[in-house]
Each structure stands twice: as structure tokens, then as C-alpha cells.
Write a structure and sequence with these properties.
Helices cover 85% and strands 0% of the residues. By secondary structure, the chain is an all-alpha fold. It has 2 domains: 70 residues; 32 residues. The longest helix has 62 residues. The protein is elongated and about 100 Å long. It starts with a helix and ends with a helix.
């Protein structure tokens, strides 16, 4: 290749081909990783949903037999507030006793 113009043409063409192949490989890997990530997230969501449904069904089954623990729901909001105030007063009293004995 004695003609520098022809040499430059083939050099540019080879550079473009190598660059195109590198971009194609990088893009392919990126799309593949995105697809893999999407599939993993869908599987995790499916497993999560399955676990939630299993637990809900188990809780529903035990509730039907009366074995489930009942959640305490006070009938009156004022009663709950009074209970909390009483507990706070007891804690303050115990804290004062502790402080007076430790001094």
C-alpha cells in the first residue's frame, strides 16, 4: 500500500468496524444485564407475593379455628390515654426511686 490515501481509508474503516463491534458488545451486555435484573426482580416479587399469600391463608385458617391471638383493641380512646398516663406515672416513680438509691 504505497498510496497513503488508500492506507488512511482502510485504517479508518478498520477503526470504525472495531469501534462498532465494541459498542455492539457493550450494548448487548447492557441489555442482557437489564433483562437478567428484570427477571430476578420479577422472581423476587413473585416469591414475596407467594409468601404473603401463604401467611395470610395460614392466619385465616388459624383464625377460623379460634387459635389465633387476638389483638387488644380498647373500646374507648380515653381509656387508652388514661392507661398510658398511669404507666408513665409508674415509670417516673420507679425512675425516681432508682435515682434516689443510686446517689
Amino acid at each position: 500500500m504505497s498510496n497513503p490515501l488508500i492506507h488512511a481509508f482502510f485504517l479508518g474503516r478498520a477503526t470504525a468496524e472495531v469501534f462498532y463491534e465494541a459498542v455492539e458488545q457493550t450494548l448487548t451486555e447492557t441489555v442482557s444485564n437489564a433483562g437478567k435484573f428484570d427477571a430476578e426482580q420479577r422472581e423476587r416479587l413473585r416469591q414475596f407475593t407467594s409468601q404473603v399469600m401463604e401467611r395470610a391463608q395460614a392466619a385465616e385458617a388459624t383464625a377460623g379455628t379460634g387459635e389465633a391471638t387476638t389483638v387488644h383493641q380498647p373500646a374507648d380512646l380515653q381509656e387508652t390515654i388514661d392507661d398510658l398516663r398511669a404507666e408513665i406515672a409508674q415509670l417516673r416513680s420507679a425512675l425516681q426511686k432508682y435515682r434516689s438509691h443510686s446517689e
